Design the sequence.
């Protein structure tokens, strides 16, 4: 078993926090940019300003 400190890490594109490799990301680790769904959703264009809500 590997220790978490031995796993590769990246910095989240939204919050800048480091996050470690997870087994569910094994196939596409190179394309993973966000530490969580919350960060991924908040990075979408216009989401923070309330734009694109159908108005």
Sequence:
């Amino acid at each position: 078993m590997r220790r978490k400190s031995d796993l590769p890490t990246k910095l989240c594109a939204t919050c800048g926090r480091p996050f470690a490799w997870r087994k569910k990301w094994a196939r596409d680790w190179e394309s993973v940019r966000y530490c969580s769904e919350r960060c991924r959703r908040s990075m979408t264009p216009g989401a923070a300003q309330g734009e694109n809500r159908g108005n």
